[in-house]
Specification:
alpha/beta; Four Helix Bundle (Hemerythrin (Met), subunit A); Rossmann fold; six-stranded antiparallel beta sheet
Length: 439
Amino acid sequence: MRYFIWGFFWIAVYLGLALSPCLILLHGDMPGGYGFWWDFSMALGFAAASMIALMFFLTARFKRAALPFGVDIVYYFHKYISLLLFLFAATHTIILLVTEPVVWVMLRPEQLNRYMAAGIVSLFILALIVFSSLLRKQLQIHYENWRLVHALFAVAAFILALVHIEGVGYYVATPAKRIIWGTIMGCWLLLLLYVRLVKPALLLRTPYRVKEVIPEKGNAYTLVIVPDQHQGIDFQPGQFAWLSMYHSPFSMKEHPFSISSNPEQKNELHFTIKELGDFTRRIKYATPGEAVYIDGPYGSFSIDRHPSAPGYVFIAGGIGIAPVRSMLCSLKERNDGRNHILFFAGSTMEKLTFHNELDALQDEMNLKIIYLLEHPPVDWSGESGFLSINILERHLPRNYQELEYFICGPVPMIHLAEKELHTIGVPLHHLHSELFDFV
């Protein structure tokens, strides 16, 4: 209930901030009316401008604001609300072009002025941001390069939108209303300074050092780091952090990874990382003593968010076992006496990260493990293929609808698991998924 209340509060804050420019600008003296469609277009434009400013808040990783949802959900919201933002800005333009012939005249090269050009370029940049974000993987745009360009384009789009608003002057001609937009601009600048300068500077004060790199099954490596002259971070099992290596925190070259160690292991952090891209392929070459910077912890994917559950069911695919390992090790360390189940899916047993350690855990706590192999050996007597209703019904206990389910792995596997569990009657609020596809 506490998380629900805070979630409702932050949603209300977002809506209030997004709509406040439209509501405030309607107060006091208003310019002569040009009709419904003109005013509606202006409202859409102001809403789009305020939403651009709020995009920076959504990606600033304020822990208190992200706590009810998880940062992954906030980033997904950021991704898809940008579509609505672009729709508002584009509709603002289309309405004027359709209903006001004078706008066509103002767009002629000989008539085009500074503020109209600023609005056109801002809309074009917004289109580039949206489509490059949606199609980044299909276009094979490198993540780090895309992230830097994405941030620069967002700054440019917002500044140009403000130039456009100021130049048009409609609804902002009075000193009081100029103060409103000046305040918005000031808050945005302070937020930008905090995210890009203050926060990285704070991370520089709490570095970690590489202790060792442990090769794991499944083409993965566990990076073990220790705090350098500080106490480290407190985290819940299953959470993740942004990790910076080879660069300073100011470089914007950071990546999110689940913490695979448990919180009771205070003196070091483990990140188990599968080789999937340029950055992850370099992990195995990390040398002892090398500096690492950690921004975290983040995420709501944790058993500690549901401490009173009668038991937990974990469903992992591939490297999705990393946060699950953290939660299982924490349960063992706490001498938890409840019964737990792990469904672990992968190609072959030899490629299942931590499977030897998991087998040992099965003997040390009340844990039942079901391996699902896509390519099982000839003499395999266990489950094979993909998770299905039949497999779930064979292994879940009678009280399965009361258990809490934690799902982590490839996005198709997550969707399949959620669908099958909901089909057999598991309530949606008992399903918890970790989504790293937002980067």
